[in-house]
């Protein structure tokens, strides 16, 4: 085991050295700059991702009027928040939010990954594009959710929304109990991508 | 429809053989060099130094090569190691650099004197 560990550590070092050498070479040639990697990754880490959806959901939790607007006109409601450019543009204008509550639990599925509401949910999990998941979720959502560890009460209706190129759905989960004193930012931290897909609910920390 | 290159690039890999590891809606990098390799590849394709699809083909070949020479449950599998190999191949093929130039630079690097199996000393 020890030998294996050292081998792996060396391999890490070797890969790190190769990546760094290649980057340095390309910077020296003027092909990229020292900021290029951060710029590319910034897109995934700070601009477009589940943190945007979480921000909108947290706002909906503290402001019922915003929640109504978010469901009635998702694009306009998202545009109210200070999201990076592009959020409510060509991609965002097709997004629609559905809210859990009043005896309804929502679940979103999609056939094509290009239909995933990336700006609010980030990258889809690996199982999401699995045709088996999609077809079973459409046919027997209650059983599928149970497999995800989410037991939806029998009196709660489950609505399944299939995203398409025209409309990309996301779920506004219910605010968890025991979160009265939390700030909007603290609330946003409770909103997981899974809860906005409807395969989980938001839970108090 | 897909107006942003970063989004297009990653979306095109979803559900495919070269789909990158991810969790909680984000990409997963276990080390800084993985992030570097990812960012450099996307930037080069975005700037038109090579086609994204060509890079993906290199990556698929690189993944395939590993899978053929290792057990499926080999714990030493590293997605970004395959990515880095594909990136080097794409950089050489596009004429941005040569294999010799890359190897020379690696040899000069601060890790070159470490006893690294498989590294050119």
Automatic annotation (TrEMBL), chain A:
Gene3D superfamilies: Nitrile hydratase alpha /Thiocyanate hydrolase gamma. Signal peptide: none annotated. It holds the Pfam family NHase_alpha. Its EC number is 4.2.1.84. It catalyses: an aliphatic primary amide = an aliphatic nitrile + H2O. The keyword Magnesium does not apply. InterPro entries: CN_Hdrase_a/SCN_Hdrase_g_sf (IPR036648), CN_Hdrtase_a/SCN_Hdrlase_g (IPR004232), CN_Hdrtase_asu/SCN_Hdrlase_gsu (IPR023900), Nitrile_hydratase_asu (IPR018141). Residues 15-200 form the Nitrile hydratase alpha/Thiocyanate hydrolase gamma domain. GO terms for molecular function: nitrile hydratase activity. Keywords: Lyase, Metal-binding. Belongs to the nitrile hydratase subunit alpha family. This is nitrile hydratase. The gene is nthA.
Automatic annotation (TrEMBL), chain B:
InterPro entries: CN_hydtase_beta-like_N, CN_hydtase_beta_C, Elect_transpt_acc-like_dom_sf, Nitrile_Hydratase_acc_put. Residues 27-109 form the Nitrile hydratase beta subunit-like N-terminal domain. Pfam families: NHase_beta_N. This is Nitrile hydratase accessory protein. It comes from Chelatococcus sambhunathii.
């Amino acid at each position: 085991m020890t030998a294996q560990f050292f081998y792996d550590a060396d391999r890490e070092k070797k890969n790190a050295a190769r990546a760094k050498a290649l980057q340095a070479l390309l910077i020296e040639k003027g092909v990229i700059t020292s900021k290029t990697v951060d710029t590319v990754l910034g897109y995934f880490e700070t601009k477009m991702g589940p943190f945007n959806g979480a921000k909108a959901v947290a706002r909906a939790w503290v402001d019922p009027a915003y929640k109504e607007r978010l469901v009635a006109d998702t694009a306009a409601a998202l545009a109210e928040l200070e999201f990076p450019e592009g959020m409510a543009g060509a991609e965002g204008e097709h997004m629609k939010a559905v809210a859990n509550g009043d005896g309804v639990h929502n679940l979103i599925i999609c056939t094509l990954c290009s239909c995933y509401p990336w700006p609010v949910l980030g990258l889809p999990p690996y199982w999401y594009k699995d045709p088996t998941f999609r077809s079973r979720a459409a046919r027997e959502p209650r059983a599928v959710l149970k497999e995800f560890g989410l037991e939806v009460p029998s009196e709660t209706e489950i609505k399944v929304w299939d995203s398409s190129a025209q409309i990309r759905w996301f779920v506004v989960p219910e605010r968890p109990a025991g979160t009265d004193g939390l700030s909007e930012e603290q609330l946003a931290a409770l909103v997981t991508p899974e809860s906005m897909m409807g395969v989980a609910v938001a839970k108090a920390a | 429809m897909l107006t942003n290159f970063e989004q297009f690039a990653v979306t095109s890999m979803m559900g495919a053989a070269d789909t990158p590891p991810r969790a909680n809606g984000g990409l997963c990098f276990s080390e800084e060099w993985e992030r570097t390799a990812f960012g450099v590849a996307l930037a080069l394709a975005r700037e038109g130094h090579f086609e994204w699809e060509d890079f993906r083909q290199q990556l698929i070949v690189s993944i395939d090569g590993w899978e053929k020479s290792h057990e499926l449950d080999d714990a030493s599998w590293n997605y970004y190691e395959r990515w880095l190999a594909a990136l080097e191949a794409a950089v050489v093929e596009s004429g941005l650099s040569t294999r010799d130039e890359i190897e020379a630079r690696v040899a000069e690097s601060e890790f070159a004197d470490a006893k690294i199996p498989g590294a050119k000393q």
